């Protein structure tokens, strides 16, 4: 019995990991054409070819955490590089898988770190999740949220749903489960249209159990993950579990994988951003600190890609990544972009 349970859980964990890494299909051959196995180059200001490359680039899409700043502080030269790109007429966009921040929160964080951005330049995975629920005509429906209040605000304002849970369930224990789940949950599982899971700094057993029961007891309840990131950088060499880890735990308990993962590396999201912003992938560069989200996000639709070592992964990991996750260029940080102009 325990062996069967272990095997089943392992298979589900594997399927969940695959679901968290999946991108919308472009076709196997198309993906191979977009992902050549060319050698990774270190972006060098003194290289004439690299300076020519910079002249060809019209737009840069940046991840934020680990690229513009980290949990421990600012990244030297990042604010100056962004200012220089704008002054040179380049389009600058910020795409983050962090569903705990609203665009206004991102603007405030930039200001704290001496950088500038506008809400129009920011797209978050919370906004993408809200747009997905809106596309399903769920306005007026109840949605259980595992995440921070910024996610509930995005869902309410952008999708017109009635979110509940989130930070209200922080601090609840097993005793609360016995009282709140029996003899029946409130609201009833059949009345919950979706469970939306984002990064949650107060994640606990109560939230895991409540989300899993809604998903198990109502097969039509949508399981929406804001992003697949397993971990985030807290400080030098120190990580914290991120949304992907929360999603995986709920998936194991519920016995089902997410119906959709909204953030990077979704090819559908990448295509939408390019169309919406009027960008050509050949003259657009995706910049990030993770190969499995940021770099794959760019490469799956034919963008140029730049991996920076200021975040959660190392140069060795980037160079060893499979072709569709291997960057075109590597740099210590985005500060190098200013020196290429």
Looking at this protein, list some descriptive labels:
341 residues; alpha/beta; Rossmann fold; 2 domains; 7-stranded parallel β-sheet; 5-stranded parallel β-sheet; 14 helices; 16 strands
Task: Describe the structure in your own words.
By secondary structure, the protein is α/β, with parallel strands linked by helices. It has 2 domains: 10-20 and 126-261, HAD superfamily/HAD-like (Rossmann fold), CATH 3.40.50.1000; 39-122 and 266-312 and 322-340, HAD superfamily/HAD-like (Rossmann fold), CATH 3.40.50. The protein is 42% helix and 18% strand. The chain has a 7-stranded parallel sheet with strand order 1-16-15-14-2-5-6, sandwiched between helices. Strands 8-7-9-10-13 form a 5-stranded parallel sheet, sandwiched between helices. Helix 1 (2-21) packs across helix 10 (243-254). Mean pLDDT is 89; it is low at 1-7 and 21-33.
Q: Between the first and last Cα atoms, what is the distance in angstroms?
A: 64 Å
The CATH superfamily name of the largest domain is HAD superfamily/HAD-like
Known CATH architecture of the largest domain: 3-Layer(aba) Sandwich
Strand content: 15-25%
Give a short account of the largest sheet: 7 strands, parallel
């Amino acid at each position: 019995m325990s062996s069967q349970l272990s095997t089943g859980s392992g298979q589900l964990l594997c399927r969940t990991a695959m679901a968290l890494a999946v991108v919308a299909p472009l076709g196997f051959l198309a993906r191979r054409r977009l992902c050549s196995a060319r050698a990774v180059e270190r972006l060098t200001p003194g290289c004439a070819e690299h300076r020519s490359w910079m002249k060809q680039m019209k737009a840069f899409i940046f991840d934020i955490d680990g690229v513009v700043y980290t949990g421990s502080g600012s990244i030297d030269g990042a604010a100056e590089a962004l200012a220089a790109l704008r002054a040179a007429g380049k389009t600058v966009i910020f795409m983050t898988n962090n569903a705990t921040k609203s665009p206004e929160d991102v603007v405030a964080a930039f200001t704290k770190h001496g950088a500038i951005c506008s809400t129009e330049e920011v797209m978050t995975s919370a906004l993408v999740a809200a747009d997905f629920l809106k596309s399903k005509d769920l306005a007026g429906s109840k949605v259980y949220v595992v995440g921070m209040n910024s996610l509930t605000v995005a869902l309410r304002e952008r999708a017109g749903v009635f979110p509940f849970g989130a930070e209200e369930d922080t601090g609840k224990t097993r005793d609360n489960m016995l009282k709140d789940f029996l003899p029946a949950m409130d609201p009833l599982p059949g009345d919950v249209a979706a469970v939306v899971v984002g990064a949650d700094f107060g994640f606990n057993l109560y939230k895991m159990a409540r989300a899993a029961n809604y998903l198990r007891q109502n097969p039509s309840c949508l399981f929406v993950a804001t992003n697949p990131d397993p971990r985030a950088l807290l400080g030098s060499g120190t990580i914290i579990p991120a949304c992907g880890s929360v999603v995986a735990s709920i998936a194991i308990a519920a016995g089902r994988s997410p119906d959709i993962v909204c953030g990077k590396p979704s090819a559908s999201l990448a295509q939408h951003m390019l169309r919406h912003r009027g960008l050509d992938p050949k003259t657009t560069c995706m910049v990030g600190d993770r190969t499995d989200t940021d770099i794959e996000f760019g490469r799956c639709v034919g963008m140029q890609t730049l991996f920076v070592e200021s975040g959660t992964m190392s140069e060795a990991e980037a160079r060893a990544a499979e072709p569709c996750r291997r960057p075109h260029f590597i740099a210590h940080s985005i500060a190098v972009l200013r020196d290429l102009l």
